[in-house]
Amino acid sequence: MGTTVTSPAVDARVKKIGFLSFGHWRDVPGSQTRSGADALLQTIELAEAAEEIGVNGAFVRVHHFERQLASPFPLLAAIGARTRRIEIGTGVIDMRYENPLYMAEEAAAADLISGGRLQLGISRGSPETALRGAESFGYVAEDAAEMARTKAETFLAAIDGGPVARTDPARTGGLSGRLAVTPQSPGLRDRIWWGAGTRATGQWAAKLGVHLQSSTLLSEDTGVPFDQLQAEQIRLYREAWREAGHDREARVSVSRSVLPITEDIDRLYFGTQAQGDQVGLLEGVRSRFGRTFAGEPDRIAEELAADEAVREADYVLFTVPNQLGVEYNARILATIAAHIAPAIGWKPAA
Q1: pTM of the predicted model as reported, rounded to 2 decimal places
Q2: Measured between alpha carbons, how far is residue 245 from residues 187, 191, 240, 248, 264 in Å?
Q3: If you placed Cys at 195, which of 3, 48, 213, 298 could pair as Cys (CB 3.0 to 4.6 Å)?
Q4: Which residues contact 2 (CB under 8 A, 6 or more apart)?
Q5: Counting Cβ atoms within 10 Å, is residue 184 exposed (0-12), middle (13-18) or buried (19+)?
Q6: Nearest 5°: phi and psi at 279?
Q7: Is 150 exposed, middle or buried (0-12, 13-18, 19+ CB in 10 A)?
Q8: In this predicted model, what pLDDT tens digit does every residue of 94-115 receive, in sequence order?
Q9: In the beta sheet, which residues pair with residue 18?
């Protein structure tokens, strides 16, 4: 397997790592997740295993109308109840589909169950197979991105304890007042992240006072490598945060597809997966996609240590091939923790 690589030039900003699961399930040969129940229960088990390894976070992707994880809050609450330390989060919830006030109640409940470990990523969402899918949930808007931002602002105000309804004088002896959603979870407002796919969106998130989840799909391309484009987005976000005058520290996460090869079975699965950036048109916009890191752990460690965006980040999320099962993915995470993550400035959680 080789020895752990440590780079003295690594930016000490990287402090945490987590896994990010899309929660795929397919009833096909080779899949360990044949059903939605498999995907949900195995995600809980993987979070428990990751906590034992010392990984900092267990994050899930949210996709609607797909054989993937969708409604996140029951799952997050279950992980919170079965673990004690690991942070739990999303990357990301598509706000186009959400009732922001009901979501505020669910988020607070999940955060309270976990003891304040929720790191909630929200966003406009990504391109999807459903045609105007949010309309099927009852939400119609001329501008989907604007709708998502408006809902996000309403959600943030609600979890911050702001009044969102009025009392009924007929039920309160003629008294009139304003009501906030309940329950409230102190500190949750400071643990909200926005998934941004452009530099401008990252700057908007900074002004709003939420942390940045920089997307592995940037819907702009300036001709530079993906990590440099992402690093520029991060620097612009931090600059906008400073200009906004927030009294909290900005935090940034990036995600990477990392597939360490240490056994023959890994080589069978991933021996041809390593690749460079991908550039293409997405919804008519020239976009750049991040690469896959596959190979010997020492080589991946060196490549990640040189990754400009990883050096800028506070949190690095590693996507997992969840259909290969809990035991396989726990081994991947253990390899990352022992032989790759130290090279980017990470130490195991106490």
Answers
A1: 0.91
A2: 19, 18, 9, 9, 52
A3: 213
A4: 296, 297, 298, 339
A5: middle
A6: -125, 135
A7: middle
A8: 999 999 999 999 999 999 999 9
A9: 57, 317
